[in-house]
Structure formats: C-alpha cells, structure tokens
Amino acid sequence: MTETPYQLAWYGCDLGSGGIIEDLPSLKPTGALTRKLGDSTTLQFELNLAGAPSGWTEATTPGQSALVAVDTATDTPLWAGAVLTRGGGSPQTLSLGAITLEAYLDGRYPGTQTLIGTDQAAVISALVTPALTNGPPIVIDAPNTGVTMTYLTEDGDDKSILSCLKELMALDGGPEWTVDVVWNGSHSGFQFPLRVRPAIGSQTTTPEATFDFPGCVDSYTLAESYEQGKGATVVLARGEGEGSSRLTSSPHEATALIAAGWPRWEYRYTPATGVTDPDQLNAHAAQSLTLMQQGAQVWSIEAVASRAPRLNRDWALGDTVRMAVERSPRHPQGANVVARCWSWELDPGADRIRPILVEES
Fold first, then answer.
1. Cβ–Cβ under 8 Å, residues 11 and 22
2. Rounded to an integer, what distance in angstroms lies between the CA atom of residue 71 and that of residue 301?
3. How many Cα atoms sit within 13 Å of 138 on the Cβ side?
4. What is the pLDDT along the chain (361 residues), one digit of tens a residue?
5. Source organism's superkingdom (predicted)?
6. pTM (two decimals)
7. CB 88 within 8 A of CB 99
C-alpha cells in the first residue's frame, strides 16, 4: 500500500505519431480523469500560457494533438485523450477539451465486411484495421479468444467502427475491448493498444487489491436497482421494422428464478441499428438477461488515492478488486465482496480515487 500522492506529468503529443511535442507543466485538468470499458470519456483543461512552453500551439491543436497523463511515481501512463476544442483570447489561460481514443473510432468506418465463422478477436481486428491508416498509433492487441462468430456490415449502413465494437461487446459472450496508453519503445512518445479479450483485465476470486472501510475508503454506496432497463427475468430483443415482419429473438427467461417464485419482469428492446441476424439478436437477449436477472448491484467508492491500491500497478480497468467493509450502517455485520472495475475516476488534486465496481453473477 503506497503513501505517495499522485503527481501527474502532462505531455502534448502529435496525435498521428504519438510523439511528444512538449511537456505541459502548466496544464491542469478542471475535473477528474475517467476511464470506462468499451467507451470514451472526456476531460476539460486549463493551460496557463505564462508557464507554457514555446511549442504549446502545436502541442494542443484540435484534431492533431493528444494529451497524455503519466503517474510520475511509477512512470506509468494513466490517461490519453485527443484534443477536440481549444479556446482563448485576452485571458491568461487557455481552455482545452479532450476525449479518450475510443472516440477516434467513431470518426472512422469499417467499410463492407463479411466475416463468417471468424474468431471474435479477428472480427474486431478486421473492423479496426481501416483506422490504422492515417490514424493515431493504435496497436491491435487481440489474441484469439477461441470463440467464433459471424458478423456482417455494409458500408451503406454508415455504422462507425465504434458503434460496431459496442454492438459486439453487448452480445452474450461477446468480446470486451478498450484502448489503453503505453510508452513507445524509445520512451519518446506513446502508443495506444486496442486490447481485445473475452474479459478485459484480471479476474480472480482472490484479488490482492483491497479497498477497505474503514481504511483507505472514506465513503461508499451500494446501489441496487430493479428499475426498467436494469432488472428483468424475461428479455426479448427486437430488430428494426414493424409488426409481424420485425425480426425478434426468442424469449430468454431466468427459469431458475421464476421457478423459485420471482415475478416475471419483462424487458423488450432494440439493441443496435442494422441487426439482421437472428443469432445476434438472441446473443443480445441472452447477455442482457445475464446482467439483469438479479438487478444491478453497483459499488461507488471514494477512497484516499495515496492510501489506496495504486492505479495501473495494483489494479486496472476490468480487474476484480476486493471491497472489505468491517462495519457500516448499511452492512452492520460487515461485507467482503469481490467485484469488477468497470470505470474509474482519479482526482489527483483532491487525493481521491473513485472506482465503480459491479458485482457480476
């Protein structure tokens, strides 16, 4: 357990190569750094021009630059985002807005792809490959999952690579993915590995990273919900269209729960645009039932960052971690839960880290 506060070094980089243009010591985020599995996050910044290096213009150009944060205690990159907005004038500070590299895939398209009986990882690799031309230094890290699938997309559907990858991740047994940031080989810039796995991160029933209350955790909330869209014992996925011609999955039921006396809670939804394969609809419905049959159980934790397990050293996005409660009003007998990190927030200035942990059935 470390006692070292987070100190971040910020770099302005060329988005096309990942190479460092300038160190940006006067760059300050105005909110917490965040990451989510399979999705992008945004962050706003202020750059004090009085302390900015001479190349700050090139290092912060929207569409051409990226901002990268490195934990100086471990020399580990934690967050990277493409600069999208920049504003300034008479004030001494410049405002910047950046978004993590998953969002770049929303501005690139896979073209027409016919992938039949193909490993899930190879499907994602094929969809992402067009973005490797004239794009950021995205490196595909996608070993075979051992699970094959069929996926078809037409260029005329206008589905971005990001929308395709989100669709695949939502399937029952679908592959998970994320875009990380690492140093390049010469330590002169960064690469962005797009990792594909059956499940991102390390999942174990005995994780070493433990958030304890009382201890490093200041406060926590366990949110349990069976609201519409969060809980269901019967799920039906539908494609586009109307009436009897509308493509529909078979009903997926939590038979064990219903037999044990749970009520039927029905949920019908359209998982994605352009789905024309009944097998894909059934996979969506099965995955939704797995996540929804006992409702959502989400732990929101606020911990002292310098006392908590170290991000990207002791735990990372997708890993399972332990939440150990000795006693609290919600858990008077204590609680010891292993749950999975689906997102995190890091606020170095406040010395706070906020993982969002989801109990998975």
1. yes
2. 21
3. 26
4. 557 899 999 999 999 999 999 999 999 999 999 999 999 999 999 999 999 999 999 999 999 999 999 999 999 999 999 999 999 999 999 999 999 999 999 999 999 999 999 999 999 999 999 999 999 999 999 999 999 999 999 999 999 999 999 999 988 778 999 999 999 999 999 999 999 999 999 999 999 999 999 999 999 999 887 878 778 899 988 877 666 667 888 899 988 888 888 888 898 888 765 566 778 788 878 878 877 787 768 899 999 999 999 999 999 999 999 999 999 999 999 999 999 999 999 999 999 999 999 887 6
5. Bacteria
6. 0.85
7. no
Q: How many CB atoms lie within 10 A of CB 188?
A: 12
**Is the CB of residue 318 less than 8 Å from the CB of residue 37?**
yes
* Residue 280, CA distances (Å) to 110, 178, 284, 286 in order: 19, 21, 6, 10
Both tokens assigned to 76: 């580990």
Interatomic CA distance for residues 3 and 149, integer angstroms? 47
Q: Which residue has the tokens 């999208």?
A: 84
Identify which of 252, 253, 255, 258 has the alpha carbon closest to the alpha carbon of residue 237: 252
Type of residue numbered 338: V
Sheet holding 27-29, edge to edge: 20-23, 8-14, 65-71, 76-87, 93-100, 42-48, 27-29
Name the 3-class secondary structure at 308: coil
Name the amino acid, one letter, at 133: T
- List of residues 6+ apart from 88 with CB closer than 8 A: 49, 94, 95
**Phi first, then psi: what are they for 99, rounded to 5°?**
-140, 140
**Per-residue CA distances from 323 to 21, 164, 202, 241, 300 (Å):** 41, 34, 16, 45, 10
Q: What is the DSSP string of 262-301?
A: ----EEEE--STT---HHHHHHHHHHHHHHHTT-EEEEEE
